[in-house]
Structure formats: C-alpha cells, structure tokens
From TrEMBL:
<dbReference type="GO" id="GO:0005737">
    <property type="term" value="C:cytoplasm"/>
</dbReference>
<dbReference type="InterPro" id="IPR003495">
    <property type="entry name" value="CobW/HypB/UreG_nucleotide-bd"/>
</dbReference>
<feature type="domain" description="CobW C-terminal">
    <location>
        <begin position="226"/>
        <end position="317"/>
    </location>
</feature>
<keyword id="KW-0143">Chaperone</keyword>
<dbReference type="InterPro" id="IPR036627">
    <property type="entry name" value="CobW-likC_sf"/>
</dbReference>
<dbReference type="InterPro" id="IPR027417">
    <property type="entry name" value="P-loop_NTPase"/>
</dbReference>
<keyword id="KW-0547">Nucleotide-binding</keyword>
<protein>
    <submittedName>
        <fullName>Cobalamin biosynthesis protein</fullName>
    </submittedName>
</protein>
<dbReference type="Pfam" id="PF02492">
    <property type="entry name" value="cobW"/>
</dbReference>
<dbReference type="Pfam" id="PF07683">
    <property type="entry name" value="CobW_C"/>
</dbReference>
<keyword id="KW-0378">Hydrolase</keyword>
<dbReference type="InterPro" id="IPR011629">
    <property type="entry name" value="CobW-like_C"/>
</dbReference>
<dbReference type="GO" id="GO:0000166">
    <property type="term" value="F:nucleotide binding"/>
</dbReference>
<dbReference type="GO" id="GO:0016787">
    <property type="term" value="F:hydrolase activity"/>
</dbReference>
<comment type="similarity">
    <text>Belongs to the SIMIBI class G3E GTPase family. ZNG1 subfamily.</text>
</comment>
<dbReference type="InterPro" id="IPR051316">
    <property type="entry name" value="Zinc-reg_GTPase_activator"/>
</dbReference>
C-alpha cells in the first residue's frame, strides 16, 4: 500500500471574504468549538493596526499577525516566511484569515511555491459572504463596484458561508443563494449568523478539495485601489457623539472596526464594527490592569479628507477640565497609513 505524501503535510484552511463579511467572527467560532485540535493561526489585517488580532478571543493557540498590507500582494514574502515559523510549533492545522481585499487566487500561487508545498497541503478555501450586501455588489445594477474581487473570492472557494442571514428575509436568502450558485455551482453552500456553523462541516477533510486554476490576469497589487487610515487615542469617546459622526462618513468608507475606550463603559472596551451604513457595538472584555485605549481602522475605496475626519473624531472625545499634554495630542491623530 502506498501512502499519499499529503498525509504527512500540515493541512491549511484559508478563510477569505470581502470587508466585513464576518471572517474573524467565524474564526472565533471555530476556536470556541474545537476539541483536541491545536491550531496555528495567521491573521492578516490590511490596516497598519491589526484590529482582528485583538478581537480573537481564544489565545491558547499559536498566533502570528501580518498587518500594514494585503497578504496576497504586498505581504506575500511575509506569508512565506511566517508559515515555517508557525509550523515549528507543531500545530495540527493552520488557519489563515486573509484580509477583506485579498484575492484567493493570488494566495493559491503563493501557497503552491515549492518551499511551502513540501510541508503544507491546502485542505480548503472557505469564503464568507455578507448576505445583506451580496446583491448590491454582484448584480449589474448594483451601485457598489467590487464585483470582480468578490466573484474571485466566491469562485475560488470550496465552501461558501452565507453569513448574516438573520438580517434578511427568506426571499432575499434564496436570491443570495442563487447568485452564489450561479458564480460557483460546485461550492458547498452553508448558511449562518454570527459565524455559527458546525465545525464538522468546515474542517477535518482527509483529502484536499481540487485546486482550481489560477487566473493569469490578476493584478499584481490590487490594494492600490483601497486606502486605510488609523486613529489612536488614550482619551475616551462619547458614544452618542461618535455614532453621529460615523453615520455621516462618506459612502466610499466601506469598513470601520476597532476597540474603543468610552465614557459610558469605563471598565470595558467597546468593539466597533461598521460595514457600509450598518454599525454594531459590542461590550468587550474588562480592561483589567491594562490602561484603556482606542484603536480604530477605516478602509475606503477613495482618499478622503483626513484633516476633517481627525477634527470630527477628536470632537467626540471626552472634554477634560485640564489641558491635554502634547504627548497625548500626538496620539489623537487620524493618520493616513503609507504601509500598503
């Protein structure tokens, strides 16, 4: 009997999906639902601050982060160098959470490099899809023009999770399912909310799914089409005022996420998630011995006036009855990241 060499390679699962689809939520669900499996986790965040790393709740597994660019283009070499490091910790399986603008076909090219293909096998590609925005992005009449990227993310997938179905009715679910099946009739389609999908349906396949062909027309650095900004502060936000500002962001700001220090909840961080006009806030963990802080990342398809945004966000901070020192002021800037 001849054993396949793949059996001796560490399986890799790639989590992809457009901005705000729920990748980190699904990753947390996987980590929460595991039994005796030890994971190596690699998280890529497009912004200069790796917010996703801070939102991962289970820290028993080994975690490596890649920030300040997209793992499928500007950070390809970082991925190649990071995988052997995480393999040295002897995980049973590796989970890679790609950034929301990552093209999985380009990632496939990287993972097929001989230096990696000798030690890992790609078990599956799981693509998260936001059920509420899929028709707007993929339909010809849609006003949001990210069709090519999302179609590549869906067509490269072995498993597609139609997420956030609790926010749409049954008719919209059927429509979204039909769009996915039209793009990729071969995919295994699952549905869920808050990334709540059975672990047995996502992981643990003995044989890898067939590897799809890689398009030769991929752009070398598609992240040039996106802009990212980071905002940091040690002073707490006033949530009501902040909500009004976030509700008036330009429509080109597709994604905002972060951990906030707030006046209303001084002992706990507040997790902000914004996709398009939809904003959600969740009370996070206690600060404990750590000083409260705010770290916020925005991703936009066009450059926006950062000076005005800085002023608007600063106006949401608690007004102290003493002069803020210069050191604190320098941390309250809304900075355009040059790390693409």
């Amino acid at each position: 009997m001849v054993l396949s060499s793949n059996l001796w390679k560490t399986p890799v699962t790639l989590l992809t999906g457009f901005l705000g689809a729920g990748k980190t939520t699904l990753l947390n669900s996987i980590l929460k639902g595991k039994s005796d499996r030890r994971f190596g986790i690699l998280v890529n965040d497009f912004g200069s601050l790796n917010i996703d790393q801070m939102l991962i709740k289970n820290r028993d597994d080994d975690l490596i982060t890649l920030e300040g660019g997209c793992v499928c283009c500007s950070l390809q070499n970082n991925l190649v160098n990071s995988l052997p490091k995480i393999l040295s910790l002897r995980p049973d399986q590796i989970l890679i959470e790609a950034s929301g603008i990552a093209n999985p076909y380009t990632l496939l090219q990287t993972l097929k490099r001989p230096v990696l293909s000798r030690i890992i096998r790609l078990e599956s590609i799981i693509t998260l899809v936001d059920a509420t925005y899929l028709p707007q992005i993929c339909e010809p009449s849609g006003k949001i023009n990210y069709q090519d990227l999302l179609i590549d993310q869906i067509s490269a997938a072995d498993i597609v999770v139609l997420n956030k179905i609790d926010l749409i009715d049954e008719k919209a679910q059927i429509n979204a399912s039909q769009i996915i099946q039209k793009i990729a009739p071969w995919v295994r389609l699952l549905k869920g909310s808050y990334g709540d999908v059975s672990l047995d349906l996502l992981l643990g396949f003995r044989d890898s799914f067939p590897v799809r062909s890689v398009s030769s027309q991929l752009k070398s650095n598609h992240s040039d089409n996106f802009h990212t900004w980071s905002y940091e502060s040690v002073r707490p936000f006033q949530l009501l005022t902040l909500g009004k500002i976030l509700g008036k962001l330009p429509v080109t700001v597709w994604r905002a996420k972060g951990i906030l220090s707030t006046v209303e909840h001084p002992n706990r961080g507040v997790i902000l998630q914004q996709v398009g006009p939809r904003i959600t806030l969740e009370i996070g963990e206690e600060w404990g011995n750590n000083p409260p802080f705010t770290q916020l990342v925005l991703i936009s398809t066009e450059a926006i006036n950062t000076k005005i945004l800085q002023q608007q966000l600063d106006s949401c901070l608690r007004v102290e009855d003493f002069e803020v020192n210069l050191k604190t002021q320098t941390k309250d800037n809304f900075i355009l990241s040059n790390e693409m």
